[in-house]
Design goal:
By secondary structure, the chain is mainly alpha-helical. It is built from 4 helices and no strands.
Length: 123
């Protein structure tokens, strides 16, 4: 249970970075919300790997490049799911970008990220 709680804290922290980058890029640099979202997802993903390895799963004994490779595989799926969901909600459904980002990140985080990180990346 402690791992699950730490994973959720890490996920919220990574999401905060993701959202902050996205909102700053849209608001101050006038970047397209879709591209800003992808950039935010990259920043949050890097943070999440570091905190996941060192604090959540305490998996420092495994070689970092092996974990990074497995994380990259899972994260690529994460990016595809997030980008696809954002594209649909923004461009097709017309949902406001912050609301779209929250909806997609919760769905992907709960249904995809935690399980694969625990069972595959940081096993």
């Amino acid at each position: 249970m402690a791992t699950f709680i730490r994973a959720n804290i890490a996920s919220l922290s990574a999401s905060f970075i993701d959202y902050l980058v996205t909102i700053l890029l849209v608001t101050f640099l006038k970047m397209d919300p879709f591209m800003a979202s992808v950039t935010g997802t990259v920043c949050g993903g890097i943070f999440n790997f570091v905190i996941g390895r060192n604090w959540v799963f305490q998996s420092k004994s495994a070689r970092v490049h092996h974990q990074a490779f497995r994380y990259a595989l899972v994260w690529t799926g994460n990016l595809i799911l997030n980008a696809s969901g954002m594209f649909y909600l923004l461009k097709v459904a017309g949902v406001y970008y912050v609301i779209a980002k929250v909806i997609i990140s919760v769905l992907v985080g709960v249904g995809y990220n935690y399980v694969l990180q625990k069972k595959f990346v940081f096993k």
